[in-house]
């Protein structure tokens, strides 16, 4: 009986490791990596190149699943409510999801979001960063990257369900590592 329980536990653990391995993106960026160059459209349909900020100011890029959903709205509004803190620290805040420009504009207007939202409709930038999906690939991941002014990732926070903690963790790291 103990052997069967042990084998069952071993099987479950093996399956979980296999799922985790499959869900990881091949080019996952880590702390110390330089972010890749990319250009996406913002909520005003303007092309925004990440290189416009490189060498000038720190950046917080947060990937989120979908505009105007409960968790994503909570996260965006928490970034909005703390926006002055980011501004005082000289940090550019950018949100990225697969929603289109029109969806971002509506979301931004509805909640008075003062920061840039980029439309990654083909999920190319999400793949460049290696942002993982959750729940067997059904739900895009929620990951926040803190990037110094040289384009180097200094911190990564990954939590699908603790949307507000993305902001508190990010602010703590930025204050701790203020350049």
Folded structure, characterized:
The structure is a single chain. The chain has 179 residues and is of the alpha+beta class. The protein has one domain (2-176): Glutaredoxin. 39% of the residues lie in helices and 21% in strands. It is built from 6 helices and 9 strands. It has helices at residues 2-23, 70-81, 83-88, 101-111, 124-129, 165-176, and strands at residues 39-42, 47-49, 59-63, 92-97, 116-119, 133-134, 139-140, 143-147, 153-158. Strands 2-1-5-4-3-8-9 form a 7-stranded mixed sheet. The chain is globular and about 65 Å long. Mean pLDDT is 82; it is low at 19-26.
Distance between the termini: 59 Å
Total strands: the figure is 9
Shape: globular
Average pLDDT reading: 82
Descriptive labels:
single chain, Glutaredoxin, 6 helices, 9 strands, alpha+beta
At a glance:
With 179 residues, this protein is of the alpha+beta class.
What topology does this entry show?
Layout: H1 2-23, E1 39-42, E2 47-49, E3 59-63, H2 70-81, H3 83-88, E4 92-97, H4 101-111, E5 116-119, H5 124-129, E6 133-134, E7 139-140, E8 143-147, E9 153-158, H6 165-176
Parallel strand pairs: 3-4, 4-5
Antiparallel strand pairs: 1-2, 1-5, 3-8, 6-7, 8-9
């Amino acid at each position: 009986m103990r052997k069967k329980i042990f084998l069952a536990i071993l099987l479950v653990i093996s399956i979980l490791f296999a799922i985790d391995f499959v869900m990881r993106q091949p080019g996952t960026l880590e702390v110390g990596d330089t972010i890749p160059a990319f250009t996406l459209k913002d909520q005003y349909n303007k092309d925004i190149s990440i290189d416009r900020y490189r060498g000038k100011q720190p950046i917080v890029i947060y990937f989120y699943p979908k505009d105007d959903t409960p968790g994503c709205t909570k996260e965006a509004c928490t970034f909005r409510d703390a926006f002055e803190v980011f501004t005082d620290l000289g940090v550019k805040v950018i949100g990225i999801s697969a929603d289109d420009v029109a969806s971002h504009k509506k979301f931004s207007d509805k909640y008075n979001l003062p920061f840039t939202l980029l439309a990654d409709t083909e999920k190319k930038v999400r793949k460049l960063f290696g942002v993982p999906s959750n729940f067997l690939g059904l739900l895009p991941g929620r990951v926040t990257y803190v990037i110094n002014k040289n384009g180097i990732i200094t911190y990564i926070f990954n939590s699908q369900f603790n949307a507000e903690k993305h902001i508190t963790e990010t602010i703590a790291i930025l204050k701790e590592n203020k350049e």
